[in-house]
């Protein structure tokens, strides 16, 4: 409902300072606003999840599509929030001539798979099998997981190397004499 100017039918433009809130002054205020915006979607997500659990069967078609859309929205909103309100510029990692994020995707994929397997064992299997967190089986599993992650970090941080730039290495199939194996008697 706008006001009319001079009793005519002409509507005045809304006052923009009252239509949009002022920008947040602190990071806490920005986080509170983001949480307030996300609250309806979170409530909808919990409602869909509750309906699926109450019905006793998880209807994959409809529920999965709703959850997929909600999770997509959640990830997108989180990345936008981090990009706008944190010290990390997320756009720098995903755009430009040399995007750093796409180079890290294989490592992220492998580490996410390992984390899912770890969580499935620790949260799902160990309590169901009655294995205590401080048992020898748990210690062995956690030691192996640590070694796997240490191995992944070592593999990811090791330079793969390149072909030497000397002229002896430019002939295909004929390596330099210095690197060829010679027998003791010849």
Features:
186 residues, mainly alpha, 6 helices, 0% strand, flat, transmembrane, transmembrane helix, membrane
Structure description:
With 186 residues, this protein is mostly helical. Among the domains are: 22-88; 98-157. It is 62% helix and 0% strand. It has helices at residues 16-19, 27-55, 60-85, 90-94, 100-129, 136-157. It starts with 15 loop residues before the first helix and ends in a 29-residue tail after the last helix. The model has no long low-confidence stretch (mean pLDDT 75).
Quick overview:
The protein has six helices and no strands. By secondary structure, it is mostly helical.
Question: What does the secondary structure layout of this molecule look like, with pairings?
Answer:
Blueprint: H1 16-19, H2 27-55, H3 60-85, H4 90-94, H5 100-129, H6 136-157
Radius of gyration equals 29 Å
State the share of residues found in helices, binned by percent: 55-70%
Q: What's the total count of β strands?
A: 0
Mean pLDDT: 75
Form type: flat
Q: Span from first to last CA?
A: 102 Å
Give the amount of beta strand, in percent: under 5%
Largest sheet: none
Structural class: mainly alpha
Number of helices, where a helix is a run of at least 4 consecutive DSSP H or I residues = 6
Unreliable stretches covering 5 or more consecutive residues:
none
Which series of helices and strands comes N to C?
HHHHHH
Transmembrane segments: 105-127, 139-157
Keywords: Membrane, Transmembrane, Transmembrane helix
Region (Disordered): 13-33, 159-186
């Amino acid at each position: 409902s706008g006001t009319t100017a001079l009793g005519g039918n002409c509507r005045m433009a809304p006052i923009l300072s009252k239509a949009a809130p002022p920008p947040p002054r602190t990071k806490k205020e920005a986080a509170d606003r983001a949480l307030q915006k996300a609250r309806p979607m979170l409530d909808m997500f919990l409602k869909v999840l509750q309906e699926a659990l109450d019905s006793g069967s998880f209807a994959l078609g409809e529920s999965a599509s709703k959850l997929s859309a909600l999770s997509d929205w959640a990830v997108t909103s989180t990345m936008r929030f981090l990009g706008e309100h944190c010290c990390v510029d997320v756009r720098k990692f995903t755009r430009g001539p040399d995007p750093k994020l796409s180079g890290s995707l294989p490592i992220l994929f492998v580490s996410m798979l390992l984390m899912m397997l770890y969580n499935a064992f620790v949260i799902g299997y160990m309590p169901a099998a009655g294995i205590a967190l401080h048992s020898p089986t748990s210690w062995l599993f956690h030691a192996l997981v640590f070694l796997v992650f240490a191995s992944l970090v070592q593999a990811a941080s090791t330079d793969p190397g390149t072909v030497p730039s000397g002229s002896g290495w430019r002939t295909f199939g004929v390596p330099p004499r210095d690197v060829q194996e010679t027998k003791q008697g010849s």
